[in-house]
Amino acid sequence: MSDPTLDALRAALDSAGDPDGGGLVRPAGEGDLLAGRRPRYVAAPASTAQVAAVLRTAAGHGLTVVARGGGTRQDWAAPPERLDLVVETARLTGVVEHAAGDLIVAVRAGTRLDELADRLAPAGQQLALDVPLAGGTVGGAISANPSGPRRMRYGTVRDLLIGVTVVRADGVVARAGGRVVKNVAGYDLGKLVTGAYGTLGLVTEAVFRLHPLPAATAYVRRWVDGPEAAGPLVAAVLGAQVVPSAVEVDAPPGDGVEVTVLLEGTPAGVAARAASTAALLGAGADVSAEAPPGWGAYPWEPGGVGLKLTAALSGVPGLLATARAAAGRYRAPLAVRGSAGTGVLHAGLPAATEPPVVAALLDELREATARAGGHAVVLTAPPPVRELVDLWGPVPGLALMRRIKAQFDPDARLAPGRFVGGI
After folding, report:
1. Helices (H), 196-266
2. Could you tell me where the DSSP H helices lie in 199-354?
3. 227-239 vs 267-281: helix crossing angle, rounded to 10
4. CA dist 359 to 252, 310, 332, Å?
5. pLDDT at residue 95 above 50?
6. Which residues are CB-neighbours of 157 under 8 A, at least 6 positions away?
7. Virtual CA dihedral for 279, 283, 288, 290, nearest 10 degrees?
8. Are 319 and 371 in contact (CB under 8 A)?
9. Residue 285: phi, psi to the nearest 5?
10. What is the mean pLDDT of residues 103-121?
């Protein structure tokens, strides 16, 4: 039996010049679950024009839409309240332009970050984003705005993104920054869509600022008894002239904290700064060219509870101490890892942790992050935990965020309910 909506989606791709015709729009199957929701259709466009054609048709049929890249963070944030169409970016790949002399790359959203790194490396350049989850794509990084150790030196996705092409819910293509002249409606479009979980538009292309690959790296590490001992060491490194690219703390369940400092640069400069850093960290410091185990990875396993904790730099030791004490009271194997140089930490619990324990720990961590000038967000968790806790916590500016959503997607058809406040 013919499905008029499916036929219309196929015709849209065909009209936009898809060389393979309608075979790239299909009914969804069991393997197409996204954050626990099964869509009705899956489309795989290969250009911005094809994405625009699909979204125009979806709008005409009242379909809700969620983009899917590498699928590495589909369990982050809230599940979509309704899901009709998944737009895959697996065919929306490749480098559009690499202006090596200007340290700029334009790349399509479905391109994997590790493949982009391989493409840039022969030119001695990098997109300086850490990749804690293998298989992540450019579009996924913009959507979820993850960060890793090197954000201390290079910044986040928001800092490195200088241009973006976005298809709105109605199929209108908007471009801002980078290689174009005109911005859109007064908004900084790149910053708006970064971290919005696909609720404002579907990113099809991005332009990034690049950095040279370092000629040498060194990791200087020291294990100490706890947060109280780690705090002065971090402060000493941050106050010195060793110019670290990252200052990380790793506090696994139990006792002890490891402080690791990443140094990058010329071989002679790195060697000298590594010696100075080792002296700052004191007896027991180790210098290696190899990253320590777990470097840049999230401290939770797939299916577990993942939290993002932020604090002012001066509040990091206190936040670590609070997390360690609370975990002890609830007998929960809480692991915390992240940047003492930027105040962005991640915490993890096993999937089997009882939901009331997670809720109690989260309450204490939210109080601690608030005292330290930050916040605590649940990035991912099993369904029983999601049903019990507020994933986002208090969010200043929510009313403004709702108004922006209404401007970009008045019918709330893009990833409905995925973002803060049910946006």
Report:
1. 227-239
2. 227-239, 267-281, 316-330
3. 140
4. 20, 18, 12
5. yes
6. 129, 141, 142, 145, 146, 147, 194, 195
7. -120
8. no
9. -70, 145
10. 97
Tell me: the pLDDT tens digits for 341-370?
999 999 999 999 999 999 999 999 999 999
- Rounded Cα–Cα distance for residues 147 and 131 (Å): 8
CA distance 50 to 288: 48
CA distance 285 to 233: 11
Residues, the chain: 423
pLDDT reported for residue 132? 82
d(CA 126, CA 90): 22
Residues 6+ apart with CB under 8 A from 160: 127, 128, 129, 154, 208, 209
Q: Rounded CA gap, 367 and 133, in Å?
A: 29
| Residue 156 DSSP one-character state | -
- The rounded distance, in Å, linking the Cα atoms of 351 and 78 is 17
**One-character DSSP codes across 374-420:** --EEEEE--HHHHHHS-SS---TTHHHHHHHHHHH-TT--BSTT-SG
Whole-angstrom distance, CA of residue 244 vs CA of residue 277: 9
Q: What is the mean pLDDT of residues 209-233?
A: 96
SS3 assignment, position 25 = strand
Report strand pairing: 257-265 vs 335-339.
Answer: unpaired
Distances (CA, A) of 242 to 239, 245, 280, 283: 9, 9, 10, 18
Q: Where are the alpha helices (DSSP H) in 157-245?
A: 157-160, 189-193, 227-239
